[in-house]
Specification:
With 245 residues, the chain is of the alpha+beta class. The chain contains 3 helices and 12 strands. It binds calcium ion (3 copies).
Length: 245
């Protein structure tokens, strides 16, 4: 290839590259999880490669924020579960930033805990706009420790993409409607949380993961919850027991 063609190729690539880079969605997407942290019941999601602000936007869509690392235990839990998610060592954004005031770091969630885990020499505010914090990935010196950088998607070389971890509160049940006679939450037993009409699981019915906590699990023919007749649970006359399936 002669020099003229090389220059033309470079010019063509230079024209295409910003288009390719600009093609990344402005808001991250969920690529892993949610995983539940038993220590606090919160849900954590791995988000796709994006800027800190793009990742925070997705975290808010999920009902939370980029993860707030409240203490060393949470720091370790998140790093263990997401630093090498799917067998790929990943950098990931956390909610810490000093956008509002240079040098004063705050969490996207508004929480005011003071635990930090900076890598040696960080945060160094290497460049103006280095206001966003990510973890160093497994296999690196200072793996799991924190670094401030710019609002970017990549740390400057192929493969150095930055993912993110979002944290949301545990889902909660809606408030029970007024006049509720009985409520069987299915949290490991067949107790009635409202009316005293506890039941008996029949036919090998059990419990599984529910939308909130546990739920009844009916997986075979004849499995049901049997509840005895009661004056406060009058379902009228029928051919047999009222099944809950
Ligand atoms: Ca947290
Ligand atoms: Ca800064
Ligand atoms: Ca830095």
């Amino acid at each position: 290839m002669n020099m003229g063609k090389q220059l033309a190729l470079v010019a063509a690539l230079a024209a295409i590259l910003p288009v390719l880079l600009g093609a990344r969605p402005t808001q991250a997407a969920v690529v892993g999880g949610p995983l539940t942290n038993a220590a606090n019941g919160h849900l954590y999601y791995l988000l796709s490669v994006n800027t800190w602000t793009g990742a925070e936007a997705e975290a808010q869509t999920l009902g939370g924020h980029l993860v707030t690392i409240n203490d060393a235990a949470e720091d370790g839990w998140v790093f263990t579960n997401f630093g090498n998610f799917g067998g790929t060592a990943r950098y990931y954004w956390i909610g810490l930033n000093d956008v509002t005031q240079e040098g004063t770091y705050t969490w996207a969630s508004g929480e005011t805990n003071t635990y930090v885990n900076w890598a040696p020499g960080e945060p160094n505010a290497f460049a103006s706009g280095d206001d966003y914090v990510h973890l160093l990935r497994p296999g690196e010196v200072s793996a799991g420790k924190w670094n401030d950088t710019a609002n970017i998607t990549n740390l400057g070389a192929p493969g150095l993409d930055v993912y993110a971890v979002a944290e949301t509160l545990a889902p909660t049940c809606v408030a029970p409607p007024s006049g509720l006679v009985s409520w069987w939450p299915g949290e490991g037993d067949a107790a009635d949380a409202v009316g005293g009409n506890g039941g008996q699981l029949q036919g090998g019915a059990g419990f599984g993961a529910g939308k909130v906590g546990q739920a009844f699990s009916f997986t075979g023919t004849g499995q049901h919850l049997r509840v005895a007749a009661a004056t406060n649970l009058d379902v009228g006359q029928g051919p047999g027991p009222l099944p809950l399936k």
